[in-house]
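User: Please predict the structure of the protein below. I'd like the answer in structure-token form so I can feed it into my own downstream comparison script.

Assistant: Understood. Taking the following sequence of 364 residues as input:
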Amino acid sequence: MKKIVFINLLIISLFSCKNETKKESKNLEQSIEKNLNCDNILVSLIKNSSISNPFKSKIKAEIDKKEDNKITVRLFVDSESGTNIENSIGWLIIDVAKRKLFDITNDIENPVELKFNPSDFDFFLKCENLNAKNTTMENTKIDFNELFNEGSNIDFTPKDLNKDITEIKEFKSKLILFENSNSENFDSGNLETLINNETFTNSESFINGEWLDYFIKKYKLNVSSLHTLMSKAIEQEDFSAVKTLAKNGYIFNIEELESSKEQLKYFKSLNGKIDVENYYDPSYSHIEKIFNLINKAYQNYVIYDKDGYTNLREDKSINSKVITKINSGENINVITNPDEEDWCLVETKDGKKGYVHKSRIVSK
């Protein structure tokens, strides 16, 4: 039976890599749903904690017992002799009710309280609850900040999710939990967490820019409405984010162009010196690339309509008064981004202002 399955998969891979990828992803999700390994999640909780142990990098863990909202955990490492012997190296207590983690290895009467990542703690408890109650992953919710937060360092991309790396496998388990509980509804405000702040010397996190593109496409987000996100990307000089939003159809306005221009002036005024007060290091600046991208797009905004022209209207409605006609190929200045109804306030080359639907605006 295994041989037949293998041959079938091989044939599929030869004829359709795309279908193979989709099937592999689906099978992996089903596998995780059926057998979520809580021990791996427990190990992640411990390794990311403040525990002091000479074997920290090699630590493995298992639950020894559960009683009165307390979980006793045995720490061990595999024997270096090559035999199937495990050497115990420590003990922990997880106090579920008080949300505390204690190291009792040296003194059970005077345990050492450990600091830990709250999202790791929550994910472990959810995993245990999942296995204990035999529920499905679709019924288990996880917040976006348990995937990405201000302290996240995620340099792998969505394309790396099938790699056999512990960190990535644990992340993918969380991602599937999140997507199962948020199959359609997605708060676009979550995306602000994905904006990097590398130019500033006090930044301690990094998230690969491909994740922004992933969630935009995953949830088919209306990029034109993500004004706050774009403002943050410009302010924090995340060129990758600005480029991703532009690639997905974002229309820049005059205010964003001016904002990037002012930021560029500030950058040049430093003459390569670090602004200690604002933690700004110009050697990592991306503002010149950001300004050039925005300026090029803005200066090249033109009207395109298959009828050869579009109407400049007095209000945000196809029923409002027509001010004038704008011919296809004619340059315009965008004053405001598209609103909820997808209308932009624009100015024509002869100074007339009015509203045009965003679908008629392109950057040539």
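That's the full token string. The chain is about 35% helix and 20% strand.
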